[in-house]
Amino acid sequence: MFQRSLLLLFSLLVLVMAAPTRRAWPSGSVTCGSNTYSLSAVKSAVSRGFSLIDDPIGSNSYPHTYNNYEGLKLWCSGESAYNEFPILKSGLYNGGSPGADRVVFSDNDVYCAVVTHTGASGDDFVSCAGD
């Protein structure tokens, strides 16, 4: 009986550890270069980007695939297809200049990161502080 209970407990533990975990949103504001974004602004940008996934906007067609060539830490364990969408100090992106900062989210609408071109080489990204 004890062995059976132990086996069941071990099996459940393996399942829990293998399941992808959703990372919570940032605990506060996020700073990209000289721009600071509230948690509300990050959530709004992710929501707007996800709502446009099948109907991209702007000359660069946002949201579009984020490849993470830089190998940055993404907070969306278990996800595999990523998108980037501009986050702006002036409000939600509706086309035009995307600026340097982006939110990254999965095709499943899971938050992954806030990244920026500010301080990076060429067209690369770096993680924003507080993410």
UniProtKB/TrEMBL annotation:
SUPFAM superfamilies, per database record: Microbial ribonucleases
Pfam families in UniProt: Ribonuclease
Signal peptide residue numbers: 1-18
Keyword DNA repair recorded: no
Keyword field: Disulfide bond, Endonuclease, Hydrolase, Lyase, Nuclease, Signal
Gene3D superfamilies: Microbial ribonucleases (3.10.450.30)
MF annotations from Gene Ontology: hydrolase activity; lyase activity; RNA binding; RNA endonuclease activity
Record InterPro entries: N1-like, Ribonuclease/ribotoxin
Annotated protein name in UniProt: Related to extracellular guanyl-specific ribonuclease RntA
